[in-house]
Amino acid sequence: MTHFGILCPAAIGHLNPMCALGRELQRRGHRVTLFHMPDVQTKVQKAGLEFYTIGEAEFPLGSLEPMYKNLGEMSGLPALRFTISWLEKETVMLFREVPEALSKVGIEALLVDQVTPAGGTIADFVNIPFVTVCNALLTNREEAVPPYFTPWANNQAWWFRKRNQVGNFLLDRLSLKIWDLVVNQRRRWNLPPYVKREDAAGKLAHICQLPAEFDFPRERLAKFFHYTGS
């Protein structure tokens, strides 16, 4: 039996598939604990998983609903900026609280949501393996694929590839503060530096619930990447 820990955003679209994955691991005889803010405790426990509270100072009980209400009134670039700002605040909290929490509970391996970039660095710091799980649209960047946050159609002409590059550059600039947090934390913990952002997914396994048939044609997926379907 392995004791798995789960790190993912508090959004339902991330929690639901992670809970389903956690229940399947339990069915196979493993133990599963999800680490998160107080607002998601009831949902996680109803799903049958163990829960460990973190982030009470930054995200006290009742803070999640108004955040999603604000986000629901936005769209486009403002919504993306708002989400990135929230994830930045969450990343700081994860680096501060999760390593000690993992040790207290006795976590032996981590399941890390793709949009929780702190997870892999935390796993490296406490010296446990981790698997990256894509519970939303695949965020892997490559010039042949439109950025996940755009409604752009697929086209392999050179000017469309340039457009994709510009979109990915914009995303990288908007999320630079989060990436800097990860880079600086690895330096403080004396961990090997990441060469590129994709390094945060690790090299053990990257599991994506999106069926391959629903994705754009891709050219640069790692050998340890797996489409699984729902």
Task: Give a written overview of the molecule.
This protein has 230 residues and is α/β, with parallel strands linked by helices. It has one domain: Rossmann fold, CATH 3.40.50. It contains seven helices and seven strands; from the N terminus they run E-H-E-H-E-H-H-E-H-E-H-H-E-E. Strands 3-2-1-4-5-6-7 form a seven-stranded parallel sheet, sandwiched between helices. Helix 1 links the parallel strand 1 and strand 2 (31-36). Helix 4 packs parallel to helix 7.
Approximate strand percentage:
5-15%
CATH-defined architecture: 3-Layer(aba) Sandwich
Using the coordinates shown, work out and report the CATH topology.
Answer: Rossmann fold
- Poorly predicted runs of 5 or more residues: none
Content-based structural category: alpha/beta
Provide the succession of SSEs.
EHEHEHHEHEHHEE
**Oligomer classification:** single chain
| Total count of strands | 7
The global form is globular
CATH class: Alpha Beta
User: How many structural domains are formed by the residues?
Assistant: 1
The main sheet comes to: 7 strands, parallel
Approximate helicity band:
40-55%
First CA to last CA: what distance? 25 Å
What is the CATH homology-level superfamily?
Glycogen Phosphorylase B
Radius of gyration: 18 Å
Strand order of the largest sheet: 3-2-1-4-5-6-7
Total number of helices:
7
Overall mean confidence score, pLDDT: 92
